[in-house]
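Hi all, posting the design record for the shared folder.

TITLE: backbone redesign
STEP: 1 of 1
STRUCTURE INPUT:
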């Protein structure tokens, strides 16, 4: 491990892809939707995606989505290798973006509590897998790595902030470790440095509960 670690023990989870999205099997015999699935079901988000797909065409939309997914997977693997001190693997095409991102990890990450962490919450009724939980600039944080073709405003990343807020609540429920901070680090095509959004999760908790309640209400 390249950084100081205080790794916690978390139960591994299995996931199943269903018509409703990804479902995680959690201890106790329950199955919870992934937080990504819940957030993706927000009507306003579905409308934006549907309009974009209609504008560019299904074939182009599928191509762009597949490319974004591959790049995201590659960047995540390189970040994981970097943090654990393993030889860097992943798509060479994404090395330039990775090179802009890891110096921020080097500068701010102090302690690693969990990496690619399987998380769930009986209180929230959701589950997921978080990129990184650790101490970032002196604050216990959920850290999520994202990629983008263009610069983002906070309005554009509300799902990311809600996702990280959910992870912080899940991690606290499972470990009793308080995680007040969230960090979204976004590698951007053609930009010399990533975007870094550092926030306190308290701002987003009420909205998160509302989104989850709406999801379950509409799933009945």
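Okay, here is what came back for every position:
SEQUENCE:
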């Amino acid at each position: 491990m390249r950084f100081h670690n205080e790794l916690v023990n978390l139960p591994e989870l299995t996931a199943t892809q269903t018509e409703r999205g990804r479902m995680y099997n959690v201890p106790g015999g329950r199955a919870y939707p992934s937080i990504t699935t819940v957030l993706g079901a927000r009507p306003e988000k579905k409308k934006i995606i549907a309009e974009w797909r209609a504008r560019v065409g299904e074939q182009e939309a599928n191509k762009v989505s597949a490319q974004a997914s591959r790049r995201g997977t590659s960047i995540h693997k390189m970040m994981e290798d970097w943090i654990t001190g393993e030889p860097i693997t992943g798509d060479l095409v994404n090395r330039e973006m990775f090179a802009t991102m890891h110096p921020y990890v080097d500068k701010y990450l102090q302690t690693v509590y969990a990496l690619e962490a399987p998380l769930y919450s009986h209180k929230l009724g959701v589950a997921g897998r978080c990129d990184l939980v650790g101490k970032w600039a002196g604050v216990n944080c959920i850290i999520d790595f994202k990629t983008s073709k263009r610069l983002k405003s906070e309005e554009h990343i509300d799902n990311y902030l809600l996702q990280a807020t959910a992870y912080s609540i899940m991690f606290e429920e499972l470990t009793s470790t308080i995680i007040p901070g969230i960090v979204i680090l976004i590698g951007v095509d053609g930009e010399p440095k990533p975007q870094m959004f550092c926030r306190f999760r308290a701002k987003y908790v009420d909205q998160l509960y509302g989104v989850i309640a709406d999801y379950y209400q509409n799933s009945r």
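COMMENT: The mean pLDDT is 92.
Let me know if anyone wants the other runs.
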